[in-house]
Amino acid sequence: MRFIGITGGVGAGKSKILQYIKRHYRCEVYLADEAAHLVKLPGTDCYRALVELMGRDILTADGQIDKPAMAGRIFGDPELLQKVNAIIHPAVKRYLLGKYEEAKGRGDVELFFVEAALLIECGYGQLVDEMWYIHAEEPVRYARLSDARGYDEEKIRQIMGQQLSEDAFRKNSDFVIDNSGSFEETRRQIDKKLEAFTWQE
Question: What is the pTM of this model?
Answer without folding.
Answer: 0.90
